[in-house]
Request: fold
Amino acid sequence: MARDKQYFTNILFLNLAVLFISTSGVLGRYITLDPVVIIFYRTLIAAVVFYILIRWRKISLKIESKRDLLKIILGGFLFGAHWITYFYSLQLSNVAIGLLSLFTYPVITAFLEPILLKTSFNKIHLALGVLVLAGIYLLSPDLDFENDYFIAVILGVISSVFYALRNILMKNQISKYNGTTLMFYQIVTICICLSPVLFFSEFTPVITQWKPLLILAILTTCIGHTLFLNSFRNFTVTAASIMSSIQPVYGILLAIIFLDEVPQLMTILGGILIISAVVIENLVSYKKA
Reply:
């Protein structure tokens, strides 16, 4: 009985983590600042919170070699590019299209990983790739660069490529260092890279939107990602990834509730194809593991 209760608690915290991370879609649409400005202040606040957490929990910030540090910094560049392109995608379309086009990253990872890490390629990924392409087409059937939705889908897919590359790059680092330490260094990297924002943007609009920025930095970035990392203590990374496939559903539901954004039928159908491909990819990885 106690074991069942603990398992239920673990599932609950994992779903809370995914729910909190899903708020990025609604907040990305709600905050009217330029995405570069949003990401700068998001990382600035998150870096302070993460540093306090690291000092409180006495987590080591030591990096063993310059090679590892360079990989972590490069991961930060990719992570920042992922966030910025994702937020531009959100502002050009809606939460459903932004999230679903981003969520092509697990299948994109399956294609990139064998090339970059010299691992074996599973032929089923070709079929999953076709499924994802069909889903992307349904998200924006009008292939026109003057169509904001089409550009949003392209940016969402580009964002997923950056995210996939960052995750592949961090694969070996996760086994060496605490996940919070890696997040801290990458967030600081993004913050430093975007710091010129202070000289080229007005501070008054930031003050008027400090509440959603604070929620984005603390709830979405710090609490959401920390809870998700902690879930790896109770579930395998693959199992956690399978369960996190519900993230677009949470994001779309939050958009319906808070932004009154109801996705169109074609978006829903495209989303079903993409999420199906993601779930199948995760199940194949889980079975292989």
